[in-house]
Design goal:
single chain, nine-stranded mixed β-sheet, 405 residues, 2 domains, 20% strand, three-stranded antiparallel β-sheet
Length: 405
């Protein structure tokens, strides 16, 4: 259950991140030697470097993509904010982004509106803050058009949103700003050999119209990268199977070949199967012992006319109810353990500063699909561990059962 919950929290449609099934993630620039075959599952000596992507590359080559519904440049950083109530500067997490960010994530505005395309293009000094930050800085949420000093620049608040839990790492911040209003450090673009402006500090979230569009988006991105690589003679930009789905993004290694993603997925699947089979074997042994003790009861029932099917169904139902109760208890225990170890399980490397993981909402961990998985696993374990011993003892000779043979 812990593994299933971990996967769901990181890849499911939860809270403001409710379009993960349609989202794609473009997060790294991989620099490799020119004209080398990189389809064999490893880079070898061809690999040169891996960095976050530059703003210039995303604007020039990714913004023109036609297939996606939305494309958003995102940079996760931390900033220094002046608190007028306490008369001191405080560190907060911020996101530099564009207007498409609000289309991809379902943020709920308490007051005001988000900054728009015109604000981004004009480098408007506008900012959206969360509810907690509004109370911390001003003691209220009705703060539209209030000035706020961020990294020693004055911005005007245009909107206040409900707090985003920190485990929803794609959208989590206290402050959201137009990326064009950032400092030269935020907007930096670096060259690598003869590839200009490929290295930076940004990444891109892409929203497809439909899950079936994702292959076409990858092909369109490959075409754009071919344009980028055309004049290069020494090194080239390698997408490394990007953009990723939410599941691929979870397992991506910053400098590893993309086939390592699927190796990690296979390992998780093997662990899940082992954790499923071992309890089934143990339960089967326990049920066999119980059936031996109940052999006389089963024989008496058969002597009074109970059919093999009725006895078999009763045993299956009894065990299923017991396992269902155990599954519910397991969900509650898993929820408690996941809360206790959430820092270790959910800490993200996306932000430049570490941050405390918020307490997880019960319905962000346990949803109807998770409950369905529990019921299905209980049923599967019940069938695997109960069916054979129940069938055997429901068909044993009445005389042998009464004589405990």
């Amino acid at each position: 259950m812990m593994i299933i919950i971990w996967l769901y929290v990181n890849t499911g449609n939860i809270g403001v991140v409710d379009k993960r099934d349609r989202m794609l993630y473009f997060t790294r620039s991989y620099i490799v030697k020119v004209n080398k075959d990189l389809s064999k599952g490893k880079f070898g000596n061809n690999f040169r470097a891996s960095f976050p992507v530059s703003t210039n590359l995303l604007e020039k080559y990714m913004y023109p993509l036609q297939t996606p519904e939305a494309k958003s440049i995102v940079g996760c950083y931390s900033c220094t904010v002046y608190n007028p109530q306490k008369h001191r500067y405080e560190k907060m997490n911020d996101i530099y982004t564009d207007a498409a960010f609000w289309k991809i994530f379902s943020m709920r505005f308490i007051s005001g509106v988000p900054f728009n395309d015109t604000d981004v293009k004009s480098k408007a000094m506008k900012v959206v803050i969360d509810e907690t930050t509004a109370y911390k800085l001003f003691g209220k949420t009705d703060v539209i058009n209030y000035p706020v000093q961020i990294d020693w620049k004055e911005y005007r608040i245009c909107g206040v949103v409900e707090d985003v839990p920190s485990y929803l790492k794609e959208a989590y911040a206290h402050i959201w700003l137009p990326y064009t209003s950032g400092s030269s450090y935020i907007l930096q673009s670096g060259d690598f050999s003869d590839l200009p402006d490929v290295v930076g500090g940004m990444h891109m979230y892409i929203l497809s119209h439909d899950i079936s569009d994702q292959r076409e988006i990858r092909q369109e991105m490959e075409h754009q990268i071919q344009k980028l690589n055309a004049p290069a003679k020494d090194v080239q930009f390698f997408l490394n199977h990007q953009p990723d789905t939410a599941l691929e993004y979870l397992f991506r290694d910053g400098s590893g070949h993309y086939e390592m993603i699927y190796d990690k997925m296979k390992m998780v699947l093997i662990v899940l199967l082992v954790l499923l089979i071992l309890p089934a074997l143990n339960l089967s042994g326990l049920i066999v012992a119980r059936m031996r003790k109940r052999a006389e009861e089963i024989a008496v029932r058969r002597a009074f006319g109970a059919s093999t099917g009725n006895i078999l169904m009763q045993i299956l139902i009894e065990n299923f109810i017991q396992m269902l109760i155990g599954g519910i208890i397991g969900i509650c225990l898993s929820y408690g353990l996941f809360q206790a170890f959430r820092e270790m399980l959910l800490t993200s490397a996306l932000n430049t500063e570490s941050y405390e993981i918020s307490t997880l909402s019960f319905w962000h961990i346990i949803n109807f699909s998770t409950l369905g998985c529990v019921v299905f696993l209980c049923f599967l374990l019940n069938m695997i561990s109960t069916l054979v011993p129940a069938w055997y003892y429901s068909r044993i000779s009445i005389v042998n059962a009464l004589n405990k043979k």
